[in-house]
């Protein structure tokens, strides 16, 4: 049987500034899901990328006095640099300025026009446009003359003749989709938001901008003549998930539809309302699921420079390294809701769970195997430690396999129990006392073997979260192959007997003091 396919994507980030904590939370969360599914034996394809057209990007480039293409090339390189540093294991990096994407979008829009000719029409339109969101705003989304999400940007009163997409026609279709496929949009809180939005009724969408040069020209001839208009950035960006599969080349069917789109809560509706309507209009299959994660805040504030908090992503990653950062972010911020980042909490969690918890456990166990058994893991019968660990690690797997949603924070909670249990087991079994009595040699063997197995299981389970440190631990244990290449299923059978351990560098050196806050 060929392995199950798992094509997952994240939002493509606007190329108008450097990557920030919010982008990092999404990419790290999705990366853990991708890596976990590889360890579930699935055929994973993980796609991320950049959203490079539109007014926002054009304006930022103009303000810097640079050609938009030069500007986005530089930003894309900076994003990739950050994702490589953070060990994001993407298989594909799509950019909306890629020629293949541009021709794919044109083919897709033509397909809508052919399959549903009635879905595009021209109309005079006026309204407040938020360049931050790249969306027209309804009155209830405007407070004190500003978009609620972008209080520092001026709204633009826009009046022009545009092309429209008949979104209203898909109202009943979308309602059925959300009702009949409860998994289509998750978590439940997001699903309820989409239901509420659908209940208010859908308006048609303006999908072109008259004077937008930094865009894909809409490939639909105007009945009234005139210049082709620039395609609205969302109509260009959403199809990236499809063009990434090679569309319109027939081979796109090998990958499409996607199993999962991971996006933030601010853009869930674009993915659960606009995108499925576009696909339905083109008579193409819908993605299986959209996961709308929450927002990362600082001290309750949405992350922004104006809030006076200035923590640089690169500085925080450098503090204890990319693995610890990945661990902390997902341990601290629930992936199904909002959470707050604090540099003090980071140090506290790093010290208690990584330096004193896992790091200390690994160094003690390896030191004892070296001291009492010349570095070779003894054989020993399985016992309650194995059974209890396996139960927790199965909970961890279920938190990532989609059966209950995508909950990396819950997976880490279950894995942390395994680490604590092993530390407690050392205290209770006191190997240093057993070592003093030659009559207890078999008992000591059993204890050391159980601890080595527990560490091996933790390395495999943590490989998705801390790919670098999990491999260091795996190497120190003398295990064959790679932790990240070991399937979750194999966890239940792991035996470390005969492995030759070697004490390496401490996995997580204790942090002695908080570095000063810059800003
Ligand atoms: N370009 C669009 C997405 C197009 S997808 C076809 C966009 N870009 S963005 O750069 O503004 O955001 C990219 C992703 O980062 C989105 O999923 C967004 O929700 C997420 N985040 C941006 N700020 C965030 C936080 N503070 N916290 C968590 N995620 C947030 O939207």
Describe this structure in words.
The chain is of the alpha/beta class and 519 residues long. The chain folds into 2 domains: 5-309, HUPs (Rossmann fold); 343-491, Orthogonal Bundle (Isoleucyl-tRNA Synthetase, Domain 1), CATH 1.10.730.10. It is built from 18 helices and 18 strands. The protein has helices at 21-39, 55-63, 68-85, 99-115, 171-180, 188-200, 233-237, 240-243, 268-281, 313-320, 322-332, 343-373, 384-398, 408-429, 431-434, 441-462, 467-476, 488-491, and strands spanning 5-10, 13-14, 43-51, 92-95, 120-130, 135-137, 142-143, 146-147, 156-165, 185-186, 205-206, 208-209, 230-231, 260-264, 290-293, 296-298, 301-302, 339-341. Strands 1, 2, 3, 4, 10, 14 and 15 form a 7-stranded parallel β-sheet that branches. It has a 4-stranded antiparallel β-sheet with strand order 6-5-9-11, with no helix packed on it. The longest helix is centred in the last third of the chain and has 31 residues, at 343-373.
Flag low-confidence runs: none
Q: Report Rg.
A: 26 Å
Bound small-molecule species? 5'-O-[(L-methionyl)-sulphamoyl]adenosine
Structural class: alpha/beta
The number of domains: 2
Mean pLDDT comes to: 94
Features:
binds 5'-O-[(L-methionyl)-sulphamoyl]adenosine; 18 strands; 519 residues; 4-stranded antiparallel β-sheet; 18 helices; 2 domains; Rossmann fold; elongated; Isoleucyl-tRNA Synthetase, Domain 1; alpha/beta
Helix/strand layout:
Blueprint lengths: L4 E6 L2 E2 L6 H19 L3 E9 L3 H9 L4 H18 L6 E4 L3 H17 L4 E11 L4 E3 L4 E2 L2 E2 L8 E10 L5 H10 L4 E2 L1 H13 L4 E2 L1 E2 L20 E2 L1 H5 L2 H4 L16 E5 L3 H14 L8 E4 L2 E3 L2 E2 L10 H8 L1 H11 L6 E3 L1 H31 L10 H15 L9 H22 L1 H4 L6 H22 L4 H10 L11 H4 L28
The protein binds 5'-O-[(L-methionyl)-sulphamoyl]adenosine.
The site of 5'-O-[(L-methionyl)-sulphamoyl]adenosine has 19 residues, from strand 2, helix 1 and strand 14.
């Amino acid at each position: 049987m060929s392995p199950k396919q798992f094509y997952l994507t994240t939002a493509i980030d606007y190329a108008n500034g450097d990557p920030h904590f919010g982008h990092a939370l999404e990419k790290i969360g999705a990366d853990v899901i991708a890596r976990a599914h590889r360890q579930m034996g699935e055929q994973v394809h993980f796609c991320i990328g950049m959203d490079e057209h539109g007014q926002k990007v054009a304006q930022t480039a103009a303000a810097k006095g640079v050609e938009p293409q030069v500007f986005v090339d530089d930003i894309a390189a900076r994003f990739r640099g950050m994702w490589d540093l953070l060990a994001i294991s993407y298989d594909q990096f799509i950019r909306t300025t890629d020629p293949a994407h541009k021709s794919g979008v044109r083919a897709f829009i033509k397909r809508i026009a052919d399959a549903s000719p009635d879905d595009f029409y021209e109309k005079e339109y006026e309204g407040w446009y938020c360049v931050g969101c790249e969306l027209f705003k309804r009155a209830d989304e405007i407070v004190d003359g500003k978009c609620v999400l972008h209080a520092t940007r001026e709204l633009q009163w826009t009046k022009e003749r545009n092309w429209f997409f008949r979104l209203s026609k898909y109202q009943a279709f979308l309602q059925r989709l959300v009702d009949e496929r409860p998994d289509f949009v998750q978590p439940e809180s997001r699903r309820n938001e989409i239901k509420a939005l659908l209940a208010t009724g859908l308006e048609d969408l303006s999908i072109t901008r008259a004077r937008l040069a930094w865009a894909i020209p809409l490939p639909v001839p105007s009945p009234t003549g005139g210049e082709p208009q620039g395609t609205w950035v969302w109509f260009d960006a959403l199809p990236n998930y499809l063009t990434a599969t090679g569309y319109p080349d027939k081979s796109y069917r090998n990958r499409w539809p996607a199993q999962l789109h991971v996006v933030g809560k601010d853009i869930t509706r674009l993915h659960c309302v606009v995108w499925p309507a576009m696909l339905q209009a083109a008579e193409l299959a819908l993605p299986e699921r959209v996961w709308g994660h929450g927002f990362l805040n600082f001290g309750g504030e949405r992350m922004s420079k104006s809030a006076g908090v200035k923590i640089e992503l690169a500085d925080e990653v450098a503090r204890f390294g990319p693995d610890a950062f990945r661990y902390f972010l997902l341990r601290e911020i629930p992936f199904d809701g909002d959470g707050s980042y604090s540099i003090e909490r980071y140090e506290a969690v790093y010290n208690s769970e990584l330096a004193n918890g896992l790091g200390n456990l690994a160094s003690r166990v390896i030191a004892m195997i070296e001291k009492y058994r010349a570095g070779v893991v003894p054989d020993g019968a399985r016992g309650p430690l194995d059974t209890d660990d396996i139960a927790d690690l199965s909970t961890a797997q279920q938190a990532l396999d989609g059966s209950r949603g995508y909950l990396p924070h819950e997976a880490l909670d279950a894995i942390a129990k395994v680490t604590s249990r092993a530390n407690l087991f050392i205290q209770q079994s006191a190997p240093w006392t057993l070592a003093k009595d030659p009559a207890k040699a078999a008992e000591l063997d059993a204890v050391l073997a159980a601890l080595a197995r527990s560490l091996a299981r933790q390395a495999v389970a943590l490989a998705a979260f801390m790919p670098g440190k999990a491999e260091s631990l795996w190497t120190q244990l003398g295990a064959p192959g790679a932790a990240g290449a070991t399937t979750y299923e194999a966890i239940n059978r792991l035996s470390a007997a005969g492995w030759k351990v070697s004490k390496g560098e401490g996995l997580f050196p204790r942090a002695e003091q908080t570095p000063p806050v810059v800003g």
